[in-house]
Specification:
The chain is mainly beta. 11% of the residues lie in helices and 52% in strands. The chain has 2 domains: 109 residues; 44 residues, no CATH class. The strands form 3 sheets. Strands 1, 2, 3, 6, 7 and 8 form a 6-stranded antiparallel β-sheet that branches. β4 and β5 form a beta hairpin. The protein is elongated and about 130 Å long.
């Protein structure tokens, strides 16, 4: 009797395990799509923004298109304050803006197979980098001497570019003029 029960349970077990067999795929599906990314960059000498687009060629390769914008400043700059609290940088003549355009390729050497795995890729880009310099204009005040050690500063009607000889001509910076 015991042999019959064991054989019967074994046959039933085999029958149900045949239907229960199958591969269980717990890994997330990898879709080979085009990619894009946006980045903000903050540096000790300025800030910038980046946009990168990757167009898939095949499973391991992508074409990259990239655009960068960056504002740069000289590390020697120190801000000064005018009498009314307007900030300016003493001696600064230009604002520097950098535009970079790139075209390149990315190749995936080793693919990430597990959820905690590491993928190894290399990429290269080439393209022009263009620097634009915009002159800075300042609102200038001129000292009007009334005699006897008395006088006052009067603002000139037209803003001017920075000049190292302003102090010799009784001129001083009132504030930085409009960007435009």
């Amino acid at each position: 009797m015991k042999k019959r029960v064991i054989v019967f349970l074994g046959v039933i077990n085999c029958f149900f395990t045949i239907y229960a067999q199958g591969e269980i795929d717990l890994q997330p599906k990898v879709f080979y799509r085009n990619e894009w990314s946006v980045a903000l960059m903050f540096n000790s000498n300025g800030w910038g923004a980046n946009y990168r687009y990757g167009k898939r060629i095949d499973a391991a390769n992508k074409r990259l298109f990239e655009v960068d914008f960056a504002y740069m400043k000289d590390p020697k700059e120190s801000k000064s304050y005018a009498r009314e609290g307007a900030r300016y940088v003493e001696g600064k003549k230009n604002l520097a803006f950098n535009f970079r355009f790139g075209y390149g390729k990315q190749h995936e050497v080793f693919r990430k197979h597990d959820a905690g795995g590491v993928a190894i890729r290399y990429f290269y880009n080439f393209g022009p980098s263009v620097m634009l310099l915009k002159p800075i204009y300042y609102n200038i005040e001129e000292f009007v001497d009334l005699g006897g050690g008395w006088g006052y500063y009067e603002q000139l009607p037209e803003p001017g570019k920075y000049n190292t000889g302003w102090m010799a001509h009784n001129l001083r910076i009132h504030s930085r003029a409009s960007f435009f």
